[in-house]
């Protein structure tokens, strides 16, 4: 009997060297690690250099996105991503801090989780609170997706027509809605 697989989008980023080397090498090895863990990689974006977020918090990032199919639940997907992050020396000691590898589950099929009210609460959280608070549960789709060029630019390479299950906007529409200055900060390596 064939396994049922879900469509996932994962954003990758790094701005510190890991055991694999420089951030761009780490991202490549992280994609390799994903391929070893029951998934089918459908697309990998080019790598991009992006300013550290928040500004001045460290070296620039290298970012990318991956579209994949996996037989995991959302919780299993998050656990697998954390396992890969940990294997590259990821330490979770500071919100939005420097990191050897960050792998965010951006989308899982067209699922909104844990529910629309919780998703909306986190999406609408004011910027100051965003820097201080992190959800204690997985929020899908990622509540900052529509605000971040460093996610949307690579995602436009692999899933341009993916439609946000709450806003109804495609990746290309969300990207076009961002200020040009933010889009221009994301530079192909």
From TrEMBL:
The keyword DNA repair does not apply. Residues 9-160 form the 7,8-dihydro-6-hydroxymethylpterin-pyrophosphokinase domain. Belongs to the HPPK family. NCBIfam families: folK. GO terms for molecular function: 2-amino-4-hydroxy-6-hydroxymethyldihydropteridine diphosphokinase activity; ATP binding; kinase activity. Keywords: ATP-binding, Folate biosynthesis, Kinase, Nucleotide-binding, Transferase. Transmembrane segments: none annotated. Pathway: Cofactor biosynthesis; tetrahydrofolate biosynthesis; 2-amino-4-hydroxy-6-hydroxymethyl-7,8-dihydropteridine diphosphate from 7,8-dihydroneopterin triphosphate: step 4/4. This is 2-amino-4-hydroxy-6-hydroxymethyldihydropteridine pyrophosphokinase. The gene is folK. Catalyzes the transfer of pyrophosphate from adenosine triphosphate (ATP) to 6-hydroxymethyl-7,8-dihydropterin, an enzymatic step in folate biosynthesis pathway. The keyword Protease does not apply. GO terms for biological process: folic acid biosynthetic process; tetrahydrofolate biosynthetic process. It is an enzyme of class 2 (transferase). Its EC number is 2.7.6.3.
């Amino acid at each position: 009997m064939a396994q049922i697989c879900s469509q996932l989008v994962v954003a990758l980023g790094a701005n510190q060297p890991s055991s694999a080397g420089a951030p761009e090498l780490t991202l490549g090895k992280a994609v390799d690690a994903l391929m070893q863990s029951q998934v089918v990689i459908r697309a990998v974006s080019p790598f991009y250099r992006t300013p550290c977020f928040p500004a001045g918090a460290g070296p620039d990032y290298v970012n990318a996105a991956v579209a994949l199919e996996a037989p995991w639940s959302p919780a299993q997907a998050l656990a697998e991503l954390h396992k890969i992050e940990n294997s590259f020396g990821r330490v979770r000691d500071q919100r939005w801090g420097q990191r050897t590898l960050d792998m965010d589950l951006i989308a899982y099929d067209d699922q909104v989780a844990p529910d629309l009210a919780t998703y909306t609460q986190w999406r609408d959280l004011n910027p100051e609170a965003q820097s201080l608070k992190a959800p204690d549960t997985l929020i899908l789709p990622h509540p900052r997706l529509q605000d971040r060029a460093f996610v949307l630019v690579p995602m436009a390479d692999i899933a341009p027509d993916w439609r946000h299950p709450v806003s109804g906007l495609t990746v290309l529409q969300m990207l076009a809605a961002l200020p040009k200055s933010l889009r221009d900060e994301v530079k192909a390596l």
